[in-house]
Amino acid sequence: MSAPLGVGVVGLGAMGASHVDTLVTQVPGTAVTAVHDADAGRGAEAAARLSAREATDPLDLVADPGVDAVVVCSPDPTHLEIVLACVRAGKPVLCEKPLGVTAEESAQVVEAESAAGRRLVTVGFMRRFDPAYLDLREAVAAGAVGRPVLVHNVHRNAAPHPAATDESVVVNSMVHELDVLPWLLGGAVTGVHVRAPQGEGLRDPQLAVVELDGGRVLASVEVYLAARYGYDIRCEVVGTDGTVALRPPGTLVHAVAGSQGTPVPADFRIRFAEAYRRELLAWAGAAREGGATGATAWDGHVANLVSAAGVQSLHSGQSVAVPAASVPELYR
Ligand SMILES: NC(=O)c1ccc[n+]([C@@H]2O[C@H](COP(=O)([O-])OP(=O)(O)OC[C@H]3O[C@@H](n4cnc5c(N)ncnc54)[C@H](O)[C@@H]3O)[C@@H](O)[C@H]2O)c1
């Protein structure tokens, strides 16, 4: 039997702890060999529980000879430095979305990976592994609704992350839909207009109209981080012959206290548990061969280009065009 893939995990908060748990319980042939969190208590606790080394910082973790591949789950502004270190070290890396906080940052990753001449970076756009989204994509590709003309997306969280800002509503949250739309339909996002209702404090909710292929398809995206009632992800594709939509998750219908309905997941870890499992399985398989799978650094960069236009639109109140970008050799 070959040795397990040694995985180093940076950031052990909600996403990192979830990925560690999934790796340990559901991804055979992997071992979490090193961890690091800026909160030393969190790092030490995980290291002891997993019999892993607690690295002194993210770069120490990347350099650890016991680490074959890295999962990055620290806050968005930390992603760039760690991913670049992984590319330099020739180690496959699953970087949680977004791939850096600006398109300038993600461009640096694309450049570094292109210079290395091989794909090492996977971006954690896990919806690409979600069974319901995969069914939706297959139905659209099979022509089930004719030619798609509209897409309606809803992305609600119970509460914002404490670090949420007006801009991160787009860059950190809406980026999921900005990646999913071209993946779902083919083609490219060519324009975006983001608005938020007048109010105090965090500009939340936000509503975007996203244009694909010069306006052949239009999509609405609602992101509402403080929706309170739970984590609710919806997507409906409207075509010339009908519509197709994600079914609400869950298998039960509760009839209690005068109302009837399906439970809403509390957060992303519940709604996308299967997507994370499939994502990590695929990633570990590719990493064992020294490569990558799923969303590429280029996909992460393209999503960041759209996010940047979205942030510009939020501030200006105007619709903003997204410049066409030519795909580098490595990603063709
Ligand atoms: N794919 C998804 O569905 C999804 C869902 C949630 C979060 N995420 C992404 O995962 C990342 C983490 O989000 P989260 O919700 O787990 O946040 P979190 O706040 O729960 O956890 C972040 C962790 O990183 C640690 N940290 C802070 N600075 C650090 C540093 N410089 N080096 C190492 N560790 C550091 C914190 O102490 C904390 O434990 C973000 O990039 C976020 O966008 C992805």
UniProtKB/TrEMBL annotation:
Protein origin, superkingdom: Bacteria
Residue span, GFO/IDH/MocA-like oxidoreductase domain: 133-244
Keywords per UniProt: NAD, Oxidoreductase
Pfam families on file: GFO_IDH_MocA (PF01408), GFO_IDH_MocA_C3 (PF22725)
Gfo/Idh/MocA-like oxidoreductase N-terminal domain span: 6-125
Family statement drawn from the similarity comment of this UniProt entry: Belongs to the Gfo/Idh/MocA family.
Alphabetized PANTHER family for the sequence: BINDING ROSSMANN FOLD OXIDOREDUCTASE, PUTATIVE (AFU_ORTHOLOGUE AFUA_2G10240)-RELATED (PTHR42840:SF3), NAD(P)-BINDING ROSSMANN-FOLD SUPERFAMILY PROTEIN-RELATED (PTHR42840)
Protein name: Gfo/Idh/MocA family oxidoreductase
Species for this entry: Georgenia deserti
